[in-house]
Amino acid sequence: MIKSKLPNVSTTIFSVMSKLAIDYNAINLAQGFPDFDTDEELINLLNHYSSNGYNQYAPMIGIEKLRHSITDKFHKLYKSNYDYQTEVNITSGASQAIFNVISTLIHPNDEVIIFEPAYDMYQPCVELFGGKVVPIELKYPEFSIDFNELEQKITSKTKLIIVNNPNNPSGKILTENDLKSFEDILKKTDCYLLADEVYEHITFDEQEHQSFAKLHSLKDRIFIVGSFGKLFHITGWKIGYILAEESFMNEFRKCHQFNTFSTHTPSQYALADYLENESNYLNLSKFFQDKRDLFINGLSQTKFDVLPSEGTYFVNANYSKISDLPDNEFAEFLTKEYKVATIPLSAFYNQKKDYKIVRFCFAKKDKTLLDAINNLMTL
Predict the structure, then answer these.
(1) CDD domains, from UniProt (predicted)?
(2) Could you tell me the pLDDT band of residue 84, with boundaries at 50, 70 and 90?
(3) H or E segment at 72?
């Protein structure tokens, strides 16, 4: 019999709720994927490169033009300096980049600090390599970081801090002062920081994304992960990237080459061309803010208490006025009886903390969102 390396891990809540949505013909606002079309220009670029013979292995580190586009973008937006040859790597999705950072850094008994509610892949990846997760709970209801607690939780065993900004599932974004607090704390330690910035260009109400790439003095301790899938509505393409200082990137590539080696070639060429038009990513905030506002305005007419969404394409709502069911049972009830699938927020906590909150994904067609609101109005 195989001895499980992840004995406490089962099917993810995203798969469970998406299957339930299919089984009960419910509107799926659970899993974070769009139901609208990808930009036709990007599809045409993909078809062009695939039809013209760009179908063999890409370089292990990614094609040059795409790497150049990424480092240029970061220099322009955050005044950071990454070398396109030695300090950026294309990956098969952001998850693969995160997995490889952890596989590169973490040895048995190393400690990794994560902030909860947290994306559910962080903890299993750490545990696969013998590390120990040290959770810090974001302060409800504003989901802010207690930096005093962070400083107290860092020990000689702390190898890595993982920060998701903008944060899924809370929709919280970090401020300039938050980045300064991280900088002050990191300077007094030997630990590294993994910045999961897959929702980089999805911030609202004219608030700028505060990338950890701005902390130039800590470049050798910070690893930044991004996702084209999240930004350009192509989650099925599974293309991401990582930026890191050269010495770490050398180690990262040792793991990367034996994981996926290279990433889908015609997609890389298509994205490299697509990034030439800055509006393709700089206009995303308005696109998603319009959807957020449409959905929140509708949700505010129901019995849900809507929590702020400063970024990402998720919004959370408290259902205490509707039911006293545990959040996982309420999410199931909502799917079966009112045909709207959501994610219970407790799924993002190690101890399954239940604040009577469910998470909605609003990266959907307007009609999908309005249909969901109509269903929820009958609660």
Answers:
(1) AAT_like
(2) very high
(3) helix 64-78
Distance CA 172, CA 42 (A): 30
pLDDT(8) > 90: no
315-356 tens-digit pLDDT: 999 999 999 999 999 999 999 999 999 999 999 999 999 999
What is the model's pTM?
0.96
Contacts of 251 (CB under 8 A, 6+ apart): 104
* Same domain flag for 288 and 261: no
Name the residue range of residue 255's domain: 56-280
Question: Cα–Cα distance between 184 and 193 in angstroms, integer?
Answer: 13
Report the number of distinct structural domains present in the chain: 2
Distance in angstroms (rounded) separating the CA atoms of residues 135 and 114: 5
d(CA 117, CA 346): 8
Those residues with Cβ within 8 angstroms of residue 171's Cβ, 6 or more apart along the chain or in another chain: 143, 307, 308, 309, 310, 311, 312, 314, 315, 316
Distance, CA of 193 to CA of 162 (rounded, Å): 6
CATH number assigned to the domain comprising residue 327: 3.90.1150.10
